[in-house]
Amino acid sequence: MKTKRDILRAYLTNFIVLVLLFVLLAAVVTSGALSRYYTGVLMTIFINIILVTSLNLTTGFLGQIALGHAGFMAIGAYTAALFVKAMEEQAGVVLLNGSSPTAAGILFFLVSLVLGGLMAAAFGFLVGVPALRLKGDYLAIITLGFGEIIRSIIENLEFTGGAQGLKQIPRTANILVVFVIMVLCVTVMITFVRSRHGRAITAIREDDIASEAAGIHNTRYKVMAFVVAAFFAGVAGGIYGQYLGVLGASSFNFNKSIDILVMVVLGGMGSITGSVLSAIGLTALPEVLRSFSDYRMLIYSVVLIIVMIFKPSGLLGHYEFSLDRLLGRLFRRNKAAAPLQEKGGDRT
């Protein structure tokens, strides 16, 4: 059993590594060595990490298949984009200084993400309350329809830009700010999973009947997990819209939801760190294979099939990677090897 000292050491190790990564990223950005292409790849990775870890709350930890995560992303994206456009056009707030966001721009960017997340969470509650009272695969069917309904509504509303899309969105998403937001989102989700609420959700996944017999309010916790996942999907959507500067409903179709689900399954349904690794790998892999333009998607598909054949539980399954545990094992191994080396030296 871990002591408070072990837990504190683990948190401190992770914090130091994250600070070093932030400093490295900041140094690369300020030096101008990071091109627009690589900035876009990194931004996409950060957005996908939030999306995949949030969907893992529903699919991995709760054990309910959801096929409309792109719908919640779309709600968050359009809510955040409309808010910052209103601040810039109607309130006259200066959000951009050339191509860089101002202090007011970053502030309203953060506010817009919260609003986008809350709006997505509200729709998640409306969808989850009736769907999660039922047993079986009803959530998958309902969320599939929900995602397509949201896309169709967006394409037919005038204030969302209709089929032509929403344009001239202030590009206030700064890569350093987005990195911090991504880390905070993942940290909150890890904390949520390890809390008593997260343990109750995992118990529902393991045995629905036994958890209810033990006094867990199944419907309440199912809706809670679904709403939290929808909130973070909305946050990811808000970042997405304010990075690209333009939104189209076709970007949030059924294929987008499937892409997110594939990342969850590949990383391991029930592993936050697995979701992070799969989001990084499956976002970077098509870019690495871009030089093989004719066979890129074929190689990408073959890699996925091979991983699923030889590792059907995903890269990590339910296992969580721990940097502190890895360093502890290396330290103990080196410590155990030291006396052997000394004995060997004495014999010579």
Commentary on this structure:
- This protein has 348 residues and is an all-alpha fold.
- A two-stranded antiparallel sheet has the order 1-2.
- Helix 2 packs parallel to helix 6 and helix 3 packs parallel to helix 5.
- The longest helix has 29 residues.
- The radius of gyration is 22 Å and the shape is globular.
- The chain starts with a helix and ends with a helix.
Observed structural traits:
1% strand, single chain, 74% helix, globular, mainly alpha, 348 residues, two-stranded antiparallel sheet
How many strands, which pairing sense, and closed or not: the largest β-sheet? Answer: 2 strands, antiparallel
Order of helices and strands: HHHEEHHHHHHHHHH
Q: Which radius of gyration do the C-alpha atoms yield? A: 22 Å
Q: Estimate the mean pLDDT confidence.
A: 86
Q: Looking at the structure, what is the overall shape?
A: globular
Strand order of the largest sheet: 1-2
| Alpha carbon gap, first and last residue | 42 Å
Count of alpha and pi helical runs: 13
Please state roughly what percent of the residues sit in beta strands, choosing from under 5%, 5-15%, 15-25%, 25-35%, 35-45% or over 45%.
under 5%
Fraction of helical residues: over 70%
Which parts are unreliable, with pLDDT below 50 for 5 consecutive residues or more?
none
The helix/strand class is mainly alpha
How many runs of DSSP E, i.e. beta strands?
Answer: 2
